[in-house]
């Protein structure tokens, strides 16, 4: 009998060993096949795009015609997706939920305005964290958006010069038949956007002008001091003397609930999907549940980040919030002024008092990208646990989520508190006038190294960065982590082109004499290690890196420059949906991500520098 043998001692020891070897081999195999991996991801994206009838321009078109109807007629009857006060919203009209069709089609048919029954609601309400298979998780996410996810409170239309705020009045689905017939192409949407800009003052809606970022931003230390108890006390006094407004009362109730109960008992607020096949690689940990519907390759992610960073800083500046790029994103900035190609998200920080105000004014806002540049829509969501240090499950206080892909910018608030910083947290913390602040994940900073914030270009667009970059990065990643470290995550930094090149493409730069194409300034095919990918990528990055090199030789002290004179660089990466759609529709005969959409608008008018 062979079976009892399994129980003998030697086998008992060998079995785990064999299993480990299998695991390592499989892991190694995955590791080596990164090339194939990227190819498969792109294939999956193309396929999903092909199978889906969803077009992100459909909801934008419906919203734009709604606004134009108000401009033209000012009559409620004509406004089919809303009332004079705002629009109806259903996630099914605004996000591609087609990966959930298997379940959702029946509901769409039976209840066209988007209701659910208890069965689907129950299916949708399972915690995003519970460990499940990929397919099941995607279905759940789609059902969650369809049935459960709160609808936003308002939508911001970005025009060339301002943002127009359209309230959302209720939940209702229209479906492609109602929204669809008027879907416009990009040029029509741009026309419509300009009409809205010209007539925005005739609408009953609020609008705000876009603003140019400042060269230097001092931030008052008070912005880092927030006490929920003090706020509650103030509001209770107002309640007692009956001067409290409705909004303040709502805020008071929120603060009391969050302070007394939620912060200490809350589950993680921003969930990523937890997937069985992804336990070790953790690819899914960089997506916001329930928006996740597939893994995303490096170049698509770089495109999403490229568009998203600009949209965030534009939105924040317009509303008077400061935030700054930090950590991995800042490390990327040091090298060549763009995010590192493997970096899965963007980290920004902001003062707690500002985040508190942002939560009250803008929680659950959708921001629509200017149709000149892309089809992105972002959801701004603020966690109810932001008010103080909690039970260790919530480090992230807000998110700016690309609702098409589920990729996001993580926003964390920095605050001053009574916790004592560890002695190694920051050097010379005893020096006079140095205040310590930290995020909920215990990253400490002195205000001295953060402030004043300063302007820089990241991904070609205007952002803020902390004052003392080298002090922050050397503490976080070690003194040799930046500029001297040239190998990272299976990439090598090729200084002659200022780019991180995947080792699978080439580990060393080809000789300079064959590298560059004299005629167009790009890379020759040989110079790009025989990969069109690298030619395309160089085309995108070289303007950003050239500018970075010119301004930031000293990463802590940039040369003196006029932001308006330099201007924003064009949008250099193609919108992801356009990219896949153009290939599937045979609109293009190549697969290039590089584009160049000049940034238009009053605040960008006086640009004189070429680069
Ligand atoms: C439309 O009606 C609202 C209120 O009924 C009014 O305030 C607004 O000025 C009108 N707009 C136009 C373009 O007539
Ligand atoms: C009510 O209380 C608030 C908060 O303390 C105070 O600012 C306000 O002046 C008071 N109003 C009246 C009418 O007493
Ligand atoms: C923001 O909105 C979400 C979704 O409705 C809600 O869960 C959260 O508590 C809100 N955050 C704040 C700070 O009120
Ligand atoms: C940055 O910080 C380091 C050490 O903390 C300090 O030596 C340096 O002078 C600072 N640089 C600037 C520009 O403040
Ligand atoms: C651009 O230049 C014009 C004329 O010199 C000036 O009136 C305008 O304010 C400038 N715009 C910006 C955004 O600086």
Structure, explained:
The chain has 611 residues and is an alpha+beta fold. It has two domains: 55-209, no CATH class; 296-604, no CATH class. The protein is 39% helix and 15% strand. It has 20 helices and 21 strands. Strands 1, 2, 3, 4, 5, 7, 8, 9, 10, 11 and 12 form an eleven-stranded mixed β-sheet that branches. A three-stranded antiparallel β-sheet has the order 6-15-16. A three-stranded antiparallel β-sheet has the order 17-18-19. Helix 2 (34-51) crosses helix 20 (576-584), helix 6 (118-124) packs across helix 7 and helix 10 (228-240) packs antiparallel against helix 11. The longest helix is centred in the N-terminal third of the chain and has 24 residues, at 9-32. The structure holds 2-acetamido-2-deoxy-beta-D-glucopyranose (5 copies).
Layout of secondary structure:
Blueprint: H1 9-32, H2 34-51, H3 56-72, E1 82-83, E2 86-89, H4 91-94, H5 101-110, H6 118-124, H7 134-147, E3 154-158, E4 162-171, H8 175-179, H9 186-199, E5 207-209, E6 216-217, H10 228-240, H11 246-265, H12 298-318, E7 324-325, H13 328-336, E8 346-351, H14 352-362, E9 365-368, E10 377-382, E11 398-402, E12 408-414, E13 436-438, E14 444-446, H15 447-450, E15 453-458, E16 461-465, H16 469-477, E17 487-488, E18 491-494, E19 499-502, H17 512-515, H18 532-551, H19 563-566, E20 571-573, H20 576-584, E21 594-597
Helix pairs in contact: 2-20, 3-9, 6-7, 10-11
One 2-acetamido-2-deoxy-beta-D-glucopyranose binds next to loops.
Span of the ends, CA to CA:
78 Å
Ligand roster: 2-acetamido-2-deoxy-beta-D-glucopyranose
Runs in which pLDDT lies below 50 for 5 or more consecutive residues are 1-7
What is the β-strand count? 21
Given the structure, what is the number of helices? Answer: 20
Mean of residue pLDDT values:
90
